[in-house]
Design a protein that fits this description.
This is SAF domain-containing protein. This protein is an alpha+beta fold. It is built from two helices and nine strands; from the N terminus they run αββββββββαβ.
Length: about 210
């Protein structure tokens, strides 16, 4: 009896080949999308100086840079997103891209600025934008002495440090601070009572 060889399935009909072909196509398409996305840039705002918490945001404080942000692009402000009445919700460092989370409106601002005089000078590393603590020593009764120092306001940011007038300008002992409005009454009361105030950078001892 004569036997006939079984016909082999066509190569192109092999399901495994078709699956492999689809995977290769998907892989190529994915790489192409990643490369195309990496090449796309978006104009966003970059701070050209340190902007402290509570400051009004103005176009002159920023430059426009083209960056590739991918899927997080919505988290940063473009030039057209900057509106009147916006303030910094936190300190924005010089050169930092302006994140949407770092902005707020003036009506919702919980901070204000106040100038205090430090009784022990201001550390050299303290500058605009530095987070600090405000310590105070209450005066004792009629003997010129002061009580033990304690924290007056913990959540404080330096807004500016003015320079003294004169030919050889030096740092003055005055410093402008950004403080929570809830702490204003206590700070003013300490100043009026003649307490000794001092600025302590976070991470330093008293």
């Amino acid at each position: 009896m004569t036997t006939h060889p079984r016909a082999r399935r066509p190569f192109w009909g092999d399901i495994r080949f078709l699956i492999g072909l689809v995977l290769v196509i998907l892989s190529i398409a994915g790489v192409w999308l990643i490369v195309s996305s990496a090449r796309e840039t978006t104009p966003v705002l970059q701070a050209n100086r340190t902007i402290t918490q509570g400051e009004a945001l103005a176009s002159g404080d920023f430059q426009v840079v083209e960056v590739s942000l991918g899927t997080v692009v919505d988290g940063y402000l473009a030039p057209q997103d900057l509106e009147p009445g916006m303030i910094a919700a936190r300190t924005v460092a010089d050169g930092e891209l302006l994140a949407a989370a770092a902005t707020g409106d003036a009506e919702s601002g919980r901070t204000t600025n106040i100038v205090v005089e430090s009784s022990v000078g201001i550390p050299a590393r303290v500058e605009a934008g530095t987070p600090v603590e405000l310590w105070y020593s209450p005066p004792l009764q009629d003997d010129g002495e002061y009580d033990a120092p304690r924290i007056l306001a913990a959540d404080v940011v330096v807004a500016s440090i003015p320079e003294s007038d004169g030919v050889l300008a030096e740092r003055s002992a005055a410093v402008e601070l950004v403080i929570d409005r809830a702490d204003v009454a206590d700070v003013l009361a300490a100043i009026n009572a003649g307490a000794a105030l001092s600025i302590v950078p976070l991470g330093s001892g008293s």
